[in-house]
Amino acid sequence: MLTLSPDLQTPLVSQIVDGLRGLIVGQVLKPGSKLPSIRAFAVAHGVSVFTVVEAYDRLVAQGWLVSRAHAGFFVKRRGDEGSALAGGARERPLPRFDARWYLKQIFENRNLPMKPGCGWLPHDWLFGDAVRRSMRQLSSDGPELDGYGLPHGHMALRMVVAESLAEQHLAVDPDQVLLTQGSSQALDLVARLLLKPGDVVLVDDPGYPNLLFMLRFAGAHLVGVPRTATGYDLPALEALLAQHKPKAFFTQPRLQSPTCSMASVAHLHRLLQLAEQHGFALVENDIYVDMDSSVRPSLASLDQLSRVIYVGSFSKTISPNLRTGYVAARRDVLDELLQLKMVSGLTSSDITERITFGVVTDGRWRKHLKSLRERLAEAHRSVGRRLQVLGFELFHEPEAGMYLWARHPDLPDSAELSKEATGEGIMLGPGQLFLVDPRPTGWLRFNVAFSQDERLWRFLEQRIQLGQQAAQ
C-alpha cells in the first residue's frame, strides 16, 4: 500500500500517517473502505505493531479513520461519528477542474504519495540539519519573545542578502533590503504599491499561478507575454506594448516556472530598453537563483535597481516552512514598501529570520547549494530522457532548477489527465493552471525531484496507450 523508508529523517509513524492521508485525499482509499489489520500492515511493511497502532490512532484522532469494535479501521465517511453505520454515505465525486480549485488542492493534497506537479523540493533535498542546528542555537541564546522584529527585518540577515547580491554584481546597502514573509508577500506588497484596479500588467505566459491570481484579485488587467526557451517572444512583446500601456511587467527571467527557461543577456538588455521607452516598471522574481550553477546577469544587476524591483527567497532551498523572502529596491521605493508591510502585518517574524540567518551562515551552506544543483542537474537528465522515450516534447532542457515543461500528442488535455492522476494518488501540474487565459492544453509541469517514482511512469504509459487507442 505504501513505500516506507527507515533511512529517512521522517519517523515511520509520520510516514504512515502522511501516506495514508494522501491515499484518502486522492481517493485511492475510498470512504468506507477497510484498512489492513494492524498486524497485517506491520508484517506487510516490516514495521512494529506499536508503530502501526500509533499511526492508526493519530488518523482516528485527526478524523481520517474510524475504529469499529471487532471489525477494524475504516476510512471515515462524511457524517460518520465514532462507531456509526458502515454504510449509507455516498462518495463525493471529484470536483470539476478549475485553476483556483487546483491551486488550493496543491496544498491540501501535498501528502499524496506522488507529487510530480508540486512546487517544492523533497525534505531530504533541503538543508534540514542546518535548520535544526540554527533552532537549537537560537533556543540556547534565549531569543526575546515579548516584542516585534525590526520593520525592515533582522539586520544581520539583510547584510547577508546584500553581500549575496553583491556577488551577483548588484550593489545594494542593507537598508535597501526589506525582509518579507516569503516571496509571495514581497510580490503582493510590490503589486499594491505599483497598481490600482484596471491597470494593465504584463506577466509571463505561461507563468506563476499564485502571482496571476493575486494580480487579478488586485483588479489588474493581465496581458501575457509568451515565453521562449531563450526568454521572451520579443516581436510579440513589442506588439503588446504598442497596443497597451502597462504599468509593470512581473517576470521571472531565470529558471522560470513552469518552463524553467532562461532569458538571454540580449533579451534582458532589450527588455530594459523597452521598459525605459514605454515607461513601465520591471519586477524581477528571482527565487530560483540559488539553483543556478552559473553566475549570470539579472535584470536588477544590469539596471542597478533604477527601474527594477528585485524579489528573492530562501524558502525553495532551505525550507518552505520558514517563509523568508526579501525585496531589494531603490531607497524611495523601499520606504513605501516598508509602510505597506507595517500597515498590513507590522513586522515579519524575527525568530524565523534569525533561524534563516543561522542556516545561510552555516559552514556547509555553500556545499549544500553545490550538492543541490548537481542533484537537480542529474534529475533533469534522468526525467528528461524518460519523458522523451515516452514521446513527450520538452519545451527546454536547462539541466538546472526544478521543472520540465512537456507535452505529449496523445495527452491533449492535461487537466483531465490530472483529475485521473489524483484518483491514483498522483499530483500532476496541468498546464491550464499556468496560462494567463486558461484553456485546455497538453502541457504539464514536472518537478524533476518528485518524478522518480515508477508508478508515475506506469500511469503515464497507460494513459498514452489509451489515448493512442482512442485516436485509432
Tell me what the structure shows.
Strands 3-10-9-8-7-4-5-6 form an 8-stranded mixed β-sheet, with helices on both faces. The longest helix has 25 residues, at 365-389. 43% of the residues lie in helices and 13% in strands. The protein has helices at 12-25, 38-45, 49-61, 99-108, 128-141, 155-167, 182-194, 209-217, 234-243, 265-278, 299-303, 331-345, 350-360, 365-389, 414-423, 454-471, and strands at residues 65-68, 72-75, 177-181, 200-205, 221-228, 231-232, 248-251, 281-285, 308-313, 324-328, 393-394, 403-407, 444-447.
Keywords:
single chain, 472 residues, alpha/beta, 8-stranded mixed sheet, 3-stranded antiparallel sheet, 16 helices, 13% strand, globular
The largest sheet is: 8 strands, mixed
| Helix percent band | 40-55%
Q: N-to-C SSE series?
A: HHHEEHHHEHEHEEHEHEHEEHHHEEHEH
DSSP strand count: 13
Topology:
Layout: H1 12-25, H2 38-45, H3 49-61, E1 65-68, E2 72-75, H4 99-108, H5 128-141, H6 155-167, E3 177-181, H7 182-194, E4 200-205, H8 209-217, E5 221-228, E6 231-232, H9 234-243, E7 248-251, H10 265-278, E8 281-285, H11 299-303, E9 308-313, E10 324-328, H12 331-345, H13 350-360, H14 365-389, E11 393-394, E12 403-407, H15 414-423, E13 444-447, H16 454-471
Parallel strand pairs: 4-5, 4-7, 7-8, 8-9
Antiparallel strand pairs: 1-2, 3-10, 5-6, 9-10, 11-12, 12-13
Helix pairs in contact: 1-3, 2-3, 5-13, 7-8, 7-12
